[in-house]
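Lecture notes, part 5. Sequence design as translation. It can be helpful to think of inverse folding as translation between two languages: the language of shapes and the language of residues. The source text, in structure tokens, appears below.
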């Protein structure tokens, strides 16, 4: 009689443990499915405009593109080596004293707006009278718009 009670008790404990293991694994599978669905629904945001240092080495085709594109004011893009380069240019200026300064970058879901200011030469300085083409270079996975601010 005692052995029958022990056998029934052990059977009930095994069924309880089995039930708990089954429930937790089905809950985990359900949780994993919800997590993967959430990851599929949320696309990775595209990276906005990021400046490139003047010391960063660039390929020959990117350098050639810069030399050509910087002559015209505006936003210019080139995809090279899987990277989308963006050049913001002021076009031709009469001397090397002119600069372009990034003041602010505003990110929207599909584009970046880069606010720049033209820095004019210091009137108390002497600059070589050579034509210059002020620009800044960056990368962006989004469309880039340039807004030139007045002083």
């Amino acid at each position: 009689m005692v052995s029958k009670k022990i056998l029934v008790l052990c059977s009930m404990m095994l069924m309880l443990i089995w039930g708990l293991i089954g429930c937790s694994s089905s809950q985990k599978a359900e949780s994993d499915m919800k997590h993967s669905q959430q990851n599929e629904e949320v696309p990775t945001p595209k990276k906005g405009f990021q400046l490139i240092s003047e010391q960063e080495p660039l390929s020959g085709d990117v350098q050639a593109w810069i030399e050509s594109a910087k002559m015209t004011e505006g936003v210019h893009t080139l995809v090279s080596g899987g990277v989308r380069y963006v050049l913001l240019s002021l076009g031709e200026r009469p001397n090397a004293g002119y600069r372009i300064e990034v003041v602010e970058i505003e990110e929207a879901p599909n584009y970046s707006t880069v606010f720049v200011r033209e820095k004019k030469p210091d009137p108390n300085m002497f600059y070589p009278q050579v034509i210059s083409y002020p620009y800044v270079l960056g990368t962006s996975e989004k469309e880039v718009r340039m807004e030139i601010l007045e002083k």
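The translated text above is only one of many valid answers, since several sequences can fold into similar shapes. Helices lie at 2-41, 60-69.
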